[in-house]
Amino acid sequence: LKTIVVWVHGFRQTLDKVKSVASHLLARIRECQTQQGTSLVAFLWPCHERGYTRARTEADTEAAFRLAALLKQLSMADPTRRIVIVGHSLGCRLACRALQDYDCGRCHHLLLLAAALDHEALMPQGEFDRLLFPVGCLLETPTILFSRHDDVLRKHLIFGEVLSGSRLSTPLGLSVPSPGTSIDRAQAIDC
Question: What are phi and psi of 144, to 5 degrees?
Fold first, then answer.
């Protein structure tokens, strides 16, 4: 295997939904790949029967620890293997927590889709400012896919964050980091 893509689903995703998305992602990978050897692993974490506050806590603790253990095993099994993490929504928080707070081995790329993180989270002094190389285990600049038109993030995430005691200002999934910050720390694409 040359590349493994690790899919980290978001909040309230059932097993059937995760399997459906993983199947779709694998089909897209196979359509686009120029070389053989890309596989997909779906990382399942228990958030489909929990409220947002409990799921967020799980993403920051046990689920992050388990994802880190998986990433380290994949990294150690074949040090030449390229590891790409794709997180969606609250799965982005989980992936960032695992990469920053635990020993994951070396991971190559992080793709954040509709990230349920503060828009300054990857910037210096942000919540996840230590996950980037050379300090952290991420070897490449992360890619952020955001949409200014995401009503779920705009309406529901901020409410959930307030209830969980967070001071999230603007979700990263809705906008790029503020002007004047070090944008070279991430590649942002408006979808």
Answer: -115, 120
